[in-house]
C-alpha cells in the first residue's frame, strides 16, 4: 500500500467514526486527533489485549497509573532535559524542516531497496538453487552497497556520539541528499531541538514552577519502583506495566496517527538481576512478537530492526517494525536499559532504590528490560491491514474492515428482518441478552443487504438476523463477516456461540 492507501484509511476512519481531526470546526490542530465512537472502542480493546497479556497472564507483572505531571527533577535525572533532542535541519529554498537522522535513514532505505531488488532478480534467475544468505555474502554489487550502508551508519553514529552536528550536515551533503520539495541541497546547519512540552504549575511563575508533560510513561514506573516492590512484596524478576498519555513536541508530525504530539503508550519495565539481561531481552523479544502475530494481521508484516545507535541508557535495543501503508516503520521498542534509570534517580533523589536479594543476601540496583509500544501506532497497524475492497462472486463490491474479531469495536449487530410483526421486539430481547457481555448494535433501518454492508464497513464480525421463523423455532441466523456463511443458532446457545468467536480468550489459545 502507498500514501494513497493511507489517504483511504484516513477518510474511511473519519466517515465511520473511528478518528477525527482534533477541534475540526476550527480547522484542526496539527498532529492531534480525536478518537470517535468506534475508534475509542477499538482503542479500548487493544488496551485490554495488551493488559491481559502483560498483567493478567503474568503473576509477576502488576499495573499502575501514574500522574502525567511529575517532579521536574525526574526529567533531569532521566536525561530528558539535557538530551531528549532531535537534530533538525531546514532546506533554505523550500523552508521545509526535517529531522536530520530521518533524512539519513531514508537514504539508507533506498540503498537497502536496491539490494533487495538485486536479491529478487537473482532469486528469479537461479530459482530453486538460490541461496539468499550466500548471495548476500558474496555478490560484489550487494557487498559494495552493504559497505556503503555500514559506512554511513558508522559516520552518523560517530558524529552523534561526539555531538558533532557539523559532521551530520557534512554527511547529508556528501550523500547528496536533497529536499523532496525543492530538490535542492541548500541546507541550514543542524541544530538540536528539545521535544518536551513545558508548562507552569499553579501560580508560581519562573523556573521554580516549571513542569513538563511527560514524554514517556516509563519514568512514572521507575520512580514508583520501591513503592510497588514493597507494598506488593514483589520478588525479582518482576514487572510494572502502565498505559497512558505521553507528549512530544515532534518537529515534523505527519502520517496521520503514526506520529502525533499527544499520544498513548503501553509500557512495561521488567526489573531483573544484573547479568540476566540478555536472557530476558530474548525472552521479551519472543513474547512480544508472539503477541503481535496472534492477531493474524499477517506474519510477513513484522520484522525486527536492531538499533545501530544505542540510546545513552541501553546495552541492547531493537524495534518491532510493522508494514504500514508508508512501509516498514517502528511499532514497538524493546530495550535493555541496564540500571541507568534507577541509578540516576538514586543520585538525584538521594534515596536508595535497591533490591535485597534474600537468596544471595546481597543488595543491588536491579537492571531493567523495557517493552514500549505506541497504542495509536497499534491502532493504525490494525486499521491499515484490515481495510479492503472485495469483489464478490455475484460481481458486487463490498468494503470490509477485517479487524481481528476480538478487537472489533462492535462484536455483533442484531437485525430484525423487517420492522413489524413483533420482530423488533424479539430482536431487542436478543440484544439485551448479549449486551452485558459485548458491545452490540441494533439496526432496523433499510434492506438487510444494506445493513450487512454497513456492518462490514465497520468490521462487525457477526450479524444476527431475527426473522419470522425465530418466533417459532427460537433460533436466529448468524452471518460471519469474513466467510459470509450463515448459520442457524438457537437463541439459548447464542451467548456461548458469540463468545467462542469474539472473546479475547481466543487470542491466547494459539
Ligand atoms: P520514533 O523513532 O518513531 O520517533 P521513538 O524511538 O522515539 O520513535 P520510543 O521513544 O521508543 O519511540 O517510544 C516507544 C513507542 O512509542 C514507539 O515504538 C511508538 O510506537 C510510540 N511513539 C513514539 N513517539 C510517538 C509519536 N510521536 N506518536 C505516536 N506514537 C509514538
Structure report:
The protein is of the alpha+beta class. The protein has 3 domains: 1-69 and 205-391, BirA Bifunctional Protein, domain 2, CATH 3.30.930.10; 85-194, 2-Layer Sandwich (Herpes Virus-1); 394-508, Rossmann fold (3-Layer(aba) Sandwich), CATH 3.40.50.800. Helix content is 39%, strand content 24%. The protein is built from 17 helices and 23 strands. The chain has helices spanning 3-15, 37-56, 73-77, 80-83, 100-126, 132-138, 140-161, 165-174, 218-222, 225-231, 277-293, 340-349, 375-386, 423-435, 448-458, 470-473, 491-502; strands at 19-21, 33-35, 61-64, 85-90, 97-99, 191-194, 198-200, 210-212, 238-247, 262-272, 302-306, 316-324, 327-338, 355-357, 362-364, 367-374, 387-391, 397-401, 412-416, 440-442, 462-466, 475-480, 486-490. The chain has a 7-stranded mixed beta sheet. It has a 5-stranded mixed beta sheet with strand order 20-19-21-22-23, with helices on both faces. Helix 5 (100-126) runs antiparallel to helix 7 (140-161), helix 5 (100-126) crosses helix 8 and helix 7 runs antiparallel to helix 8. The mean pLDDT is 94. The structure holds adenosine-5'-triphosphate (ATP). Adenosine-5'-triphosphate binds at residues 216, 248, 250, 259-260, 263, 265, 330-333, 372-374, 376-377.
Fold topology:
Elements: H1 3-15, E1 19-21, E2 33-35, H2 37-56, E3 61-64, H3 73-77, H4 80-83, E4 85-90, E5 97-99, H5 100-126, H6 132-138, H7 140-161, H8 165-174, E6 191-194, E7 198-200, E8 210-212, H9 218-222, H10 225-231, E9 238-247, E10 262-272, H11 277-293, E11 302-306, E12 316-324, E13 327-338, H12 340-349, E14 355-357, E15 362-364, E16 367-374, H13 375-386, E17 387-391, E18 397-401, E19 412-416, H14 423-435, E20 440-442, H15 448-458, E21 462-466, H16 470-473, E22 475-480, E23 486-490, H17 491-502
Parallel strand pairs: 3-9, 19-20, 19-21
Antiparallel strand pairs: 1-2, 4-5, 4-6, 7-8, 9-10, 10-16, 11-12, 12-13, 13-16, 14-15, 17-18, 21-22, 22-23
Bound molecules: adenosine-5'-triphosphate.
